[in-house]
Amino acid sequence: MKISDALAGLALVLLSLLILWHVRDFPDMPGQQYGPALFPGLLAAGIGLCGLLLVARGLRAADAWIAPPAWMSRSRPLAAFASVIGGLAFYVLAADAIGFHLVAFALMFGWTWILGARWRLALVAAVVVPVVLHLVFYKFLRVPLPWGLLESMVFR
Amino acid sequence: MIANLGAAFALVFDPYVLGVILGAAIFGLFVGAVPGLTATMATALLVPITFFMPPVPALAAIVTATAMAIFAGDIPSCLLRMPGTPASAAYTEEAYAMARKGLGELALGAGLVFSVIGGLLGTAVLVVAAPWLAEAALQFSSFEYFWLVLLGLACAVFIALGDALKGVVSLLIGLLVSCIGLDNPAGFPRFTFGSAELAGGLELIPIMIGMFAVSEILRNVASIDAPWEMARVQVGNVLRGMGGLMRRYRLSILRGSVLGTLIGALPGAGADIAAWMSYAVSKRFSREPEKFGTGHVEGIVEAGASNNSALAGAWIPALVFGIPGDSVTAIVIGVLYMKGLNPGPTVFIEHASEIYAIFIVFILANLIMLPLGIAAIKSAKQLLKVPRTLLMPAILLFCIVGAFAVNNSMLGVVLILAFGLAAWLMEANGFPIAPAILGMVLGSMLEENFIKSMIKSEGRWADFFERPIAGVLGALTIAVWLSPLAVYLWRRATRR
Hints:
A: 2 domains; B: 23 helices
């Protein structure tokens, strides 16, 4: 995804203004001249300045605002890319309720299949990989992976 | 000293630690050899596991895995015309050209042998220079640290040879991310929006997993429909002819290792930039520069030594000042703090045996690289047949669990998604990643020393230059920061 320098610069200028506005009401350190707003304020000013320079450079170059890369017009890479982002987002939203094991099975099967493996291989991977991760992290390293729906079955 | 050294040997030559080293070596060889999986990614993926280990095995795993990965990156350069890690990209064309000329075995052998030699020479510099620098650094005050951090950040922006303006943007964004949370001189919660989880600041390890592993997977799946094509290489005795090369190119080997260690020690620039520079230097001073690019081994010898020596060099500022020399040590610094080995000059006094143990692991890792590397070269064809369709999803799932394990918090998974996507977008638009990482790691250190110095000097900038070392560092820092402006003005002046 190629974003033109002008658009990126504009976004940076906006970010800078937003931060400068936000740090305005940070309190001072008692008895000191230099408070918690100074450092982020300086950074924001720098970001704004760089943003302006990028806008100037971008307007001179006159590229398209946003240009999608070539692979986005091919269906398999596009689906694979979307599935990675979608899958991670799905995990964040669903893992606590549904549980690591079921979500991991679904994700592993979906990803492997979308990337082009045969479904039988995808099914094997979807069982084996979550089980290995369970053994390493849950059993061995004692990381409390959420059980979700399976909780009532495991801890009866 | 002797007692510490004895204790260090005891720490390393323990069956558990040796087992960890062997496991990490195999892991590093695999990650390095598969294009798209990098040495930094190997480190980021190792951290959730090393989290549960004592300090020495944890650091030993990282040292070993990265050394192996940087060497193993040479293997697919030769066989697939794809660098296994960015550190091999400088001579990928050369290695592939050698394979097509039937010299694949020589290219792979040179990659291995001169990685080992470069790694050992870099380690020698680390062992000598780090304690010596630490001695000097004991005198440093907040002024010196302020300049040192600023100098390091300048190096990260300007040495990357890319777009300096975009480098500065990347750096500022990284510094801004480091502002999140309570960890500032005033102890005031910044940019937390009332969230208790954000008050502690953003955990760096999930961010690194996102920026180095998830973004790499995004790039990888975008080319999932392009198959890998393997060059035909007969592998017999990979060590044949190495003695001759060693005699013939002894000066190149030394030059590559010295330059590599130096670049490694400069903040923000690591093995990949070291290899590019050493390859260029090798061509510049070669007696037969016309052969470069046509399958000539000389550049591989020098750059191969250079990228492995850079790994050790990067640990020098990381251990002495807490300023990472490359992206691997940016992660290592987090591990050091986690294990109570807070980087700084005093770590060489308070934790001398652990530090010596790390040095010993460096030497050991480079020595076992020889037999393990030969085995990796021989099994490379099988290794590279592991289907990406299974590998990428498995790594992704591992990233999720690893990021969650750091704090047992879903915020970790949110971070790998957000920063993975951000790093992918930055990379696609020419914003370098290294300055952002450095900004995040060094942000609180920069602010703390800046505010401390401002308060001490009551806002008088002249005080920042009053102490002799601070003055020199300050002048140097300003010179580096102004260098792009000078170059720009000079170009304009000469154009007329």
